[in-house]
């Protein structure tokens, strides 16, 4: 049994795996980290490994305190990954993106894969059918768009997510909802269209905090799985064990 933990810039996601099956998954805030992990490990005492991928700013020590109970592994660029990394700055590539790319490579062999992770940021990661990781894109996520409109202007209120019913917003609030939500959806559809024009034999994997909403709104058909990063962490760890 293993416990996987994904530290993003907004929230922490965790899941307990037995083989490839998710036994339970969790979402919590950074300030609850140690308390939550302790509780999970109390409930799943058979966990032998704690596997972490972090792009957020939490102390390593918050995980290392569990070393008495089980093995702790932080994924880094030094680990073995199942793709050829063609990113020109491999050391600055987010470890979350590397894990997503690894999961896509292992789960969907011999095809072009695009992973879209709609979290704090939207990240696009492309791995071609020869398992070359080529890169992708980074842009502001849904909530970040609402927050930046408010934080960098004098007159725009901070709104929370609301699905606009039209693209012509006729009030300040509707204009913001249209710009943020429709802009978000159009951007992702636009990127997917561009990839589709250039590559065939293609799978698109959608994940992150906004995946569920997006799955309903995108015109492109996609494979949506909110747990894809955690599942990929589990798979990449198995891959590491088998290849070290
Ligand atoms: N309860 C929530 N708290 C924060 N963000 C949420 C929540 N529910 C949905 N979201 C959406 O999820 C996104 C963050 O996704 P997530 O995958 O948790 O990010 P990260 O991996 O970067 O921490 C935000 O843009 C927001 O729109
Ligand atoms: C782009 C990210 C901030 C995304 O973080 P997230 O939205 O998952 O919290 C993260 O992958 C990161 O810090 N990347 C480093 C830069 C790069 O990947 O090139
Ligand atoms: K992301």
Q: Any overview of this molecule?
A:
A hairpin with a 4-residue loop joins strand 8 (121-127) and strand 9 (132-140). The chain has helices spanning 33-43, 61-64, 95-107, 142-151, 172-198, 211-217, 228-243, and strands spanning 2-7, 12-18, 21-28, 49-54, 71-74, 84-85, 112-118, 121-127, 132-140, 202-207, 223-224. It is 36% helix and 26% strand. Helix 3 (95-107) packs across helix 7 (228-243) and helix 4 packs across helix 5. The model has no long low-confidence stretch (mean pLDDT 97). It folds into 2 domains: 2-74, ATPase, nucleotide binding domain (Nucleotidyltransferase, domain 5), CATH 3.30.420; 84-234, 2-Layer Sandwich (Nucleotidyltransferase, domain 5). It is built from 7 helices and 11 strands. It binds adenosine-5'-diphosphate, ligand PAZ and potassium ion (K). The ligand CC(C)(COP(=O)(O)O)[C@@H](O)C(=O)NCCC(=O)O is lined by residues 8-9, 55, 92-94, 96-97, 117, 119-121, 123, 138. It comes from Flavobacterium oncorhynchi.
């Amino acid at each position: 049994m293993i416990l996987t933990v994904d530290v993003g810039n907004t929230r922490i996601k965790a899941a307990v795996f037995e083989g490839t099956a998710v036994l339970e998954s969790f979402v919590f805030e950074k300030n609850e980290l140690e308390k939550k992990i302790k509780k999970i490990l109390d409930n799943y005492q058979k966990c032998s490994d704690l596997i972490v991928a972090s792009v957020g700013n939490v102390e390593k020590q918050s995980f290392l305190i569990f070393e008495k109970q089980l093995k702790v592994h932080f994924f880094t660029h030094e680990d073995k990954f199942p793709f050829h990394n063609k990113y020109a700055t491999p050391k600055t590539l987010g470890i979350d993106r590397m894990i997503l790319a690894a999961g896509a490579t292992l789960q969907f062999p011999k095809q072009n894969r695009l992973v879209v992770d709609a979290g704090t940021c939207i990240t696009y990661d492309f791995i071609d059918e020869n398992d070359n990781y080529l890169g992708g894109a980074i842009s502001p996520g849904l909530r970040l768009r609402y927050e930046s409109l408010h934080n960098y202007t004098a007159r725009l209120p901070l709104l929370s997510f609301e699905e606009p019913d039209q693209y012509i917003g006729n009030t300040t609030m509707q204009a913001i909802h249209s710009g943020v939500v429709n802009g978000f959806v159009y951007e992702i559809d636009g990127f997917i269209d561009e990839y589709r024009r250039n590559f065939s034999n293609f799978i698109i994997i959608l994940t992150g905090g906004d995946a569920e909403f997006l799955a309903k709104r995108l015109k492109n058909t996609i494979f949506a799985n909110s747990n894809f990063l955690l599942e990929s962490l589990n798979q990449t760890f198995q891959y590491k064990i088998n290849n070290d």
